[in-house]
């Protein structure tokens, strides 16, 4: 049985989704003696040292060793960073070399000489075949064929591939490269993203094996030519090198909970930017190991409007797996916030509304939980509500949520929200109306142009949609709590992850490079020089 965990619309305090996932895994494994494996994402060092902290769970429901889990682990994110930046370097290098060399010189340098003879590499032969040139001897190409083969003619203004690093650094959100004299004034503006926002991370999470990963990597579109032709990783000749850098990262990492239940930690795409789920490989391996009567517990980032929708409409499509049950993690304090309670901040004292019984706030805020149950039902999934309880919660508040949630529960058969054959605009509108509760969608001119371009280009119009939106509201506006009404979703831009296999619309200003807060978590992190014990990491 495959279980998927997500939470209600989260608050700055977090609702304890990872803690509940680990706790559920331990209850099944230790208390009920069932075969069970949890599948979790690997945390990014950006949030770990920034404002969120680690993601190993909490209390006695943790993945251990916690320090390894939250820091480098086996270096998967570093491997993705290396692969991403190798590709970025090749893009700019290719633009530079094509601008400074003749067709003849460029062709001569592109072809390797073996024992005094020029030879095409495998990836170059594949490019020749895509161009319709059925030749394998480099000396037999005509001048036109040489030019077509050697020149990608990348339009620098269309490059969408950014360099990445696994650190929150707001000053890298916009940079200028090529400033050295050796680059001959070939400057352009670009940016850094955080490493887990790389499409390569999404590819790793959605791949089913090495061959599938290589296929997905080869399809990544990084720019267009001046004629409007998509430029892919395969065109740049770097597919094999990226796969080599990821040869170990494709394997899930085996860890354990405090009580000894096994956990696969693999991949870590952000849910507001990408699809926000651990890897398909980890899920399939876990299902094989637990057997027919076992359980696999995984989680989807943020709420049903973000993590679950993408889990079902993207991950389930590519994995051919569907969950048997959904667990929604909720807290009384989060429901009070959605019911109109005062704003709360991580690390600050909670106002009295959150530490004293207030049934009216709970009742008003239940609409948010009810909406997440309703969204889950749209996918035909049975729902369990897990209340992550705190000492300030009262029996009356817990009983009220139980009563209201039971009225909204239902059992149906799994189904996708939309058909892949429908238009991109229709898919976006379907998600906005049925999941977010919007009245409609407003496509900005740039977004509509991008949609038209993608639908004209082969295969891109039939891809699933991965909405890039705030996780702090069911709408596009993080200030709108509860269940927002009477709003239009603005689609600012639409971008393509051809390798991972989805199109992602941007709902407002979505940053792919977080910034450090005034008081980052690293103020509390240290290592004892005598014992080697790490302090302050949670």
UniProtKB/TrEMBL annotation:
Pathway: One-carbon metabolism; tetrahydrofolate interconversion. InterPro entries: Formate_THF_ligase (IPR000559), Formate_THF_ligase_CS (IPR020628), P-loop_NTPase (IPR027417). GO terms for biological process: one-carbon metabolic process. GO terms for molecular function: ATP binding; formate-tetrahydrofolate ligase activity. The keyword Nucleotide-binding applies. Pfam families: FTHFS. Its EC number is 6.3.4.3. One of its GO terms (cellular component) is cytoplasm. Keywords: ATP-binding, Ligase, Nucleotide-binding, One-carbon metabolism. CDD domains: FTHFS (cd00477). The keyword Ligase applies. SUPFAM superfamilies: P-loop containing nucleoside triphosphate hydrolases. Homodimer. In the N-terminal section; belongs to the tetrahydrofolate dehydrogenase/cyclohydrolase family. This is formate--tetrahydrofolate ligase. The lineage of its organism: Eukaryota, Metazoa, Ecdysozoa, Arthropoda, Chelicerata.
């Amino acid at each position: 049985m495959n279980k998927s965990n997500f939470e209600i619309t989260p608050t700055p305090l977090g609702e304890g989704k990872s803690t509940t996932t680990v706790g559920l895994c331990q209850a099944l494994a230790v208390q009920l003696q069932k075969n069970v494996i949890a599948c979790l994402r690997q945390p990014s060092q950006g949030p770990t040292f920034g404002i969120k902290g680690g993601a190993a769970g909490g209390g006695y429901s943790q993945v251990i060793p916690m320090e390894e889990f939250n820091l480098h682990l086996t270096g998967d994110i570093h491997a993705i960073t290396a692969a991403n930046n190798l590709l970025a370097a090749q893009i700019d290098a290719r633009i530079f070399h094509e601008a400074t060399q003749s067709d003849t010189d460029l062709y001569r340098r592109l072809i390797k000489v073996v024992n005094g003879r020029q030879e095409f590499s495998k990836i170059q032969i594949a490019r020749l075949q895509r161009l319709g040139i059925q030749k394998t001897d480099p000396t037999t190409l005509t001048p036109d064929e040489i030019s077509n083969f050697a020149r990608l003619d990348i339009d620098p203004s269309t490059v969408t591939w950014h360099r990445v690093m696994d650190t929150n650094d707001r000053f890298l959100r916009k940079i200028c490269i090529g400033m050295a004299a050796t680059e001959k004034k070939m400057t352009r503006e670009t940016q850094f993203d955080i490493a887990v926002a790389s499409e390569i991370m999404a590819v790793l999470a959605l791949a089913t094996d090495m061959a599938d990963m290589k296929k997905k990597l080869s399809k990544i579109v990084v720019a267009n030519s001046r004629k409007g032709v998509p430029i892919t990783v395969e065109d740049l000749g770097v597919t094999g090198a990226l796969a080599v850098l990821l040869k170990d990262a494709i394997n899930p990492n085996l860890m354990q909970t405090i009580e000894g239940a096994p956990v696969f930690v693999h991949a870590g795409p952000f849910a507001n930017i990408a699809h926000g789920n651990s890897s398909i490989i980890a899920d399939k391996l876990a299902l094989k190991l637990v057997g027919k009567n076992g359980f696999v517990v995984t989680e989807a980032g943020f709420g049903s409007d973000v993590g679950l929708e993408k889990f079902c409409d993207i991950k389930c499509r590519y994995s051919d797996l569907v969950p048997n049950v959904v667990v929604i993690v909720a807290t009384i304090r989060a429901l009070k916030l959605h019911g109109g309670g005062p704003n709360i901040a991580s690390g600050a004292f909670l106002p009295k509304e959150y530490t004293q019984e207030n049934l009216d706030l709970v009742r008003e805020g239940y609409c948010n939980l009810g909406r997440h149950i309703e969204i889950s039902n749209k996918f035909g999934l049975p729902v369990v509500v897990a209340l992550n309880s705190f000492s300030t919660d009262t029996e009356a508040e817990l009983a009220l949520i139980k009563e209201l949630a039971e009225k909204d529960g239902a059992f149906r058969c799994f189904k996708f929200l939309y058909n892949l054959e429908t238009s991109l605009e229709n898919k976006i509108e379907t998600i906005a109306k049925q999941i977010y509760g919007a009245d409609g969608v407003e496509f900005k001119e740039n977004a509509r142009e991008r949609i038209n371009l993608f639908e004209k280009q082969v295969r891109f119009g039939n891809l699933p949609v991965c909405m890039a939106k705030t996780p702090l509201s069911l709408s596009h506006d993080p200030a709108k709590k509860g269940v927002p009404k009477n709003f239009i979703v603005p689609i600012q831009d639409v971008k393509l992850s051809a390798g991972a296999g989805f199109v992602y619309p941007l709902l407002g200003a979505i940053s792919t490079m977080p910034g450090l807060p005034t008081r980052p978590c690293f103020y509390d992190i240290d290592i004892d020089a005598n014992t080697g014990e790490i302090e302050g990491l949670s």
